[in-house]
């Protein structure tokens, strides 16, 4: 067996600590499978005295990850710090510039600088592997980069954020409030250092931007993603979804359309019968529609130290084996420019929840506004206030929830219709609008 591969790890938090432990536990089998032993020789974090579940004195310590990347005697630099600037970016650039292979779980960094970093890696004959950056433990990067290379892909979509899926699942199953669910996700090590990145959709958008590039052979374009998070979702929406035959999921969707590629992240009503509807808790799922293979769906844990370490170590093993797949599936110079399809042209069905003043003609007004915008309603529901009691007189001052489901229409038509409804004074607050995704 050739000389051991020397690894330096920068970032010893949730993921970094698990990587060190996994390599210690399964080092022998990794060496047998990849034909080369892998040894961690150097590590970096901010606080040398923190208990990380292993003895940091076994490794060369660097408080500055850039110094580790620039000076340490290593073959692979593993970046597990996070963030798209500062220590993470500087250390990755430093390692690649030296021709040191890089493994990272940092989707924010790749979403912002991926094409540039791919070029830097290729110019220096270094690998840049990032399986853990998208959907944690699911091998979707390898699937798109290698296994589906023979397919023309029309759509890639999925549940790409474990924290949001965990929150939505627990809100539905246990009736727990949003804040408590988020605190649990943070305690379990699922959330980003700044959890607004999870709940506002940025983290899903970062991952989607990478998937889009891999699926369509285009430059990464994370600024062109339509994005809505889950903070406006209420238990009323989750319950209504259930009653209407849907489940609510935060989806990232990239699809080819006649005008370009649509990239969008938003809460979505998915049919209960779809595979994606059954993905609960921290699990992620990624579906890819290929012209030859059909639909491929991969499911697995999307966050958490051990699941993510599994992908990081797979990337290390690929380098140990000598695999040199181009970073984004083809040389960076061959990636096409991304052509954005405008969100206003998006077509689909919509769920609308309105708070309607309970008075004669309110329903008719709403239906009229929708009709004027060319939108056909599949259903319109206002629930009874008191089960089993005879109706009494309505109270005009008290708004009641009314749920509409539309047939397929365009985003621009829905937005215009809702503006007109707001202007008529029949609703008491901003309508809730959630897109319905057509799925198998
Ligand atoms: P984390 O628990 O916050 O750990 C971050 C580590 O980086 C800590 O060890 C911290 O040092 C170190 N660090 C931060 N700033 C530093 C600096 N300026 N110089 C040196 N070290 C620094 O984060 P994580 O959850 O492990 O995530 C790491 C990366 O993996 C991120 O890119 C994240 O998006 C990605 N990721 C995470 C998951 C997950 O489930 N957690 C899943 C997939 C991908 P101290 O410990 O001394 O503070
Ligand atoms: N915060 C991320 C999530 C970690 O919840 O999915 C995995 O990328």
Concise description?
With 440 residues, the chain is α/β, with parallel strands linked by helices. Helix content is 36%, strand content 25%.
Task: Give a verbal description of the structure.
This protein has 440 residues and is of the alpha/beta class. Helix content is 36%, strand content 25%. The protein has 13 helices and 17 strands. The strands form 2 sheets. Strands 7, 8, 9, 10, 11, 12, 13, 14, 15, 16 and 17 form an 11-stranded mixed β-sheet that branches. Helix 6 packs across helix 7 and helix 12 packs antiparallel against helix 13. The chain is elongated and about 85 Å long. The two termini are 48 Å apart. The model has no long low-confidence stretch (mean pLDDT 96). Bound molecules: NADP nicotinamide-adenine-dinucleotide phosphate and L-homoserine. NADP nicotinamide-adenine-dinucleotide phosphate (NAP) binds next to helix 1.
